[in-house]
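Worked example 2:
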Amino acid sequence: MRLPVRFRLLAAGCAVLPDADVAGFAAGVRYGDVFGHRGLTHSILFALVTGLLVARIFFRNSLLPVGRMALASYFSLMTLSHGCLDAMTDGGLGVAFFAPFDNTRYFFPWRPIEVSPIGARFFSARGIDVMLSELEWIWLPSLMTMAICALLRQWRMKERSETD
């Protein structure tokens, strides 16, 4: 079964949604505040609530062969993936995974991804270094995983058609 376009768009949207918190800079919210960058919107609670809302609102009458809780789990993981990747960067203040209950910021022990500059500085020599780092540590492994999954799916479908 081919997934609907809205499923793919919502998955991508959930993965980038946590960085909506950068809008707080213009409102005077400080980086380290609970509503600051890598604060509440990068938390586990935010990811769970986002996943539940996306599944409930956009898949109310879904014909997908999975239940709404499976969809909610998937969209929650897509949202949480952003904070996990940010916790693997080499800069910033860390990620408040347990906000709003605890604003302590965390990094993972392994931090190979270069931190991305915020704002117009992204379009600089430093920004290009960051894009190359993300290509190496995020995009290439993601593309390889997708290719392997596609090959496995084709192999399974071929086996099924040969046994029928």
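The chain has a mean pLDDT of 91. Residues 49 and 125 are 37 Å apart (CA to CA).
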